[in-house]
Amino acid sequence: MKRQVWLLFCCQALMQAATVGQAVMAALIGHSLAEDKSLSTLPVAIQMTATMAASIPAGIVFARLGRKPGFVLGALGAMAGSLTFAAGVWTGNFVLYCAGAVPAGLGFGIAQHYRFAAAEIASPGYRPRAISLVMTGGVLAAALGPELVKATREAMPPYLFLGTYLVLACLPVVCMGLLALVRLPPAPPRHAGGAPLWEIIARPAFVTAAVAGMVAYGTMNLLMTSTPVEMMLCGFGVGASATVIQIHAVAMFGPGFFTGRLITRFGVRPVIAAGAALTALCVLIGLMGESFAHFGIALGLLGLGWNFMFVGATNLLATAHAPEERVRAQAANDTIVFGTVACTAFLSGAVHAQAGWAVLNLAVLPALALALGLIAWQAARAPRPAPG
Question: Is 180 helix (H, G, I), strand (E, B) or coil?
């Protein structure tokens, strides 16, 4: 079981590395190619929309063919996305560059299910650690993605980042090689039963898990997407913004080595609440100044808050459905989460361009308050142990 979890860790790392690298480049390339600078984050928004759109077809593929064929399709999508991004950079065509975000987003959306695959192959006692460990593959991605950008951004002059995208296209190929070694559960029986979808999504545990995941990813994406542009406007170069994104990505995934243990010890709701508090602290640091230290510390706190909230939300989701309901519940959850992420990606560039960095930071606070309110609501509804 643990060997399979580590293989999923490696697959997650490779797929995530391309996404982390894209996070460094996308807004900068969009800013350089788009005539309207408020559209600089449009490629990220399209990618997140495609990620949301991937949830339902991914659920159908996983339900009918099983996990492995679905993950192979995701890797092929990521490869096609990187190659289309490369073509957009080569031709200087903003529309073509945006088109690459569609297959890239589909691949990223399917790769989000590695955490669910880990939950399915792990024993109940090991499940929190398996989920957080697979998501910790992002630590390797955090080291690999930005370093690839730094090393290859000028590999094919005069086309900045063209060589990077050609290298990123190779990562899904390696992932498919590792998938050949992974043993995953077969597709669930057709017509396996379970409650209808509307009943699943009305459960308090599902509502809290979906909203916590939505707030975790939405607030993180809102701030992270525009950070490279804000740093550029403050006079920082590509290397500095890549380093800040690297700090952010390490903070996102590094805690996965111990987040599962924290959930086991303290419970899932306190960990989600701690993540919301860390994200609020990120806003405070972001409003205090715009030095490299401010960007680095704020994005580090943002990543740590995302980890606690999103890993907690994933564990909470696993308690909200029966085994035969898992594919429908997971697809519905990711549709909600990544639909929000797509909206924040669209909003990020527009709010940043029209209202500024301070307003962009303050915009995340109401969402954090909503998540904390739902955590308190579900805690109040939870059955209390009988006295003595």
Answer: coil
In 3D space, the residue among 51, 71, 52, 49 whose CA is nearest the CA of residue 62 turns out to be: 71
Rounded CA separation 124/5 (Å): 14
Whole-number Å distance between alpha carbons of 286 and 357: 9
Asked whether the whole model's pTM tops 0.85, one would answer no
Mind listing the domains of the chain with CATH numbers?
2-182+196-381 (1.20.1250.20)
Residue 222: which of 310, 344, 338, 304 has the closest Cα?
344
Tokens at 150, concatenated: 């730094």
Exposed, middle or buried, 116 (CB in 10 Å: 0-12/13-18/19+)? buried
Phi, psi (deg, nearest 5) at residue 133: -65, -45
Query: What's the rounded Cα separation, in Å, for the pair 366 and 215?
Result: 10
Q: What is the DSSP letter of 185?
A: P
Question: 3-state class of 327 per DSSP?
Answer: helix
- List, as one string, the DSSP characters of 27-67: HHHHHHH-SSGGGTTHHHHHHHHHHHHHHHHHHHHHHHH-H
10-residue averages of pLDDT along the chain (388 residues): 86 88 83 81 83 80 84 94 94 94 91 84 78 80 84 88 93 93 74 74 89 92 88 88 86 82 88 95 94 95 94 87 80 84 80 90 93 85 53
CB 27 within 8 A of CB 225: yes
Tokens standing for 287? 């409003």
